[in-house]
Amino acid sequence: MTRAFVFPGQGAQTIGMGKALAVAYPAAQAVFNEVDEALGEKLSALIWEGDIADLTLTQNAQPALMATSIAAMRALEAEGASITDAAFVAGHSLGEYSALAAAGALSVADTARLLRTRGQAMQFAVPVGEGAMAAVLGLDLDAVRAVAEEAAQGEVCQAANDNDPTQVVVSGAKAAVERAAVIAKEKGAKRAVMLPVSAPFHCALMQPAADVMAEALAGVEINAPAVPLVANVRAEAVTDPDQIRSLLVEQVTGSVRWRESVQYMVTQGVDSVWEIGAGKALSGMIRKIDRAVACQAVGSPDDVQAALGAGQ
Do 242 and 195 contact (CB within 8 A), yes or no? Predict the structure, then answer.
């Protein structure tokens, strides 16, 4: 089998995620300790014992999900797996940072600080209530792009996440996104669901956050990843550190081309994917993109054993 490791994005967070990994594997516990130290606070206490509303705040959810993913990766490594068992790494939005940390391109401490900065910058880029996102179900990317263009009416409204053949997310000004939801249903969408998010991610309104991240990333060392990264905004493999740096900036306002990223990996021979960290959302998307790809979620000690058993 040719395997890829993929890393989840925002929305996968749950209270208690990664705790069983930390109990079972000292190397997993060490990740949470390192993230706590890098941020100067006990984020692990929030992850394991806090309030879900606080964990869901973008500035907390992003480093928390990364910590959980890297803890799962360290658990796999403790059992003899390696990042180089994968032909590619990829991540959905913030998951791209987790993928880079797993592949050694970024240190865990730098990744935690970058994601705290990213979360704060994305939250503050647009005043609460002025932006929105909606998931359009049952229309393809071209149809949703046409819907977004019609709905814009001089405001920002863009296709933000091309998740799978049945789901594209639009992002932008609140009124424009609400118009897009109505137009999408008129155009034959099965549903158009406003998402409970605090900011309109992956659209032009995020340019202030992109500027912040350009400055933050300029001061961080990025190494060539141990395995190629399939970048969100390119949907193809990259390994050059300078290119990775610029793509991480572009990613803030650019679309997450997840469907195309998975299709690219399949064309390169990938037939097995391990989803490293919290939840199973990416596995669900991947099954809709190509049902022939075997998916394994790895977020608990039992998952680690199941993945290693299936991977023999």
Answer: no
